[in-house]
């Protein structure tokens, strides 16, 4: 009886934990808005924020206020959306495939987005506005191809078959991307700049485009924590509890892929967020997906906002965001890999 009570406590999302995570996210968000590449002074920016809330006099000029509200705030919010999407998707993929090293790009989303973005850059060099929608469609297409390839044997694909299909599709689409790049070698730098990831925001357009897709996926995934917990018991046990494992996996993979595609379309390829954040959440708050998924949403947003702040302020020229997350995530990935091997052995 005592053991069951402890288990129930570990799988329950405590209000105190959510409040702490939300306060951390709010603090990171405010700090990112206050400090930026433009030397406006954090006190003056804080005065602008207070003035907007209270209706008082702002210490900023109209141009400086535009920098805050049309550049900084949208970029910070977009970083939060992308980080939340990648972290939740990573946690979902790890649960569905029962693999602690699974990431949001596992089913060909990255390769599909990269190929589509490359096609746009090569075929229409001056139509940069078409890159995000093309990347979104490419990511969805890559996942769709993986699903279709996984079904070639008939019936619903299992997780192992789907995983192998994703690897095959990703390799094929990456080869197509490399071939297309060679058609116009002068575009290689532009393509790789996009692939390294970044948040080049010039207004609210990117936020408004990505938010509905990421929001819908986040609602579905946050409400599916119990389903993932049941799936972790095994298909036979899940079926005995009234669940249809194949249908649940399809729903979860579709929602996670939608969130990944939306994130990739506005940020390029940003690695390690989907691995680092869910594992940190598990270490701090427990392994139940009813806890991991909502806290990964908050933690992923805070992590990428902080990483983007480093990317745009640590050097006179802005660093690619993917480089910053790789510096932070690669050592953590090695630690997770080593831990997984020790558990297997």
TrEMBL record:
Subcellular location: Cell membrane
GO biological process, one term: siderophore-iron import into cell
Gene Ontology CC terms: plasma membrane
Record bears the keyword Endoplasmic reticulum: no
Membrane topology, from the record: Multi-pass membrane protein
Molecular function in Gene Ontology: transmembrane transporter activity
Listed SUPFAM superfamilies: ABC transporter involved in vitamin B12 uptake, BtuC
Keyword line: Cell membrane, Membrane, Transmembrane, Transmembrane helix, Transport
TM helices/strands, residue ranges: 76-93, 105-124, 130-150, 162-183, 203-223, 250-277, 289-307, 319-337
Family from the record: Belongs to the binding-protein-dependent transport system permease family. FecCD subfamily.
Record's protein name: Iron ABC transporter permease
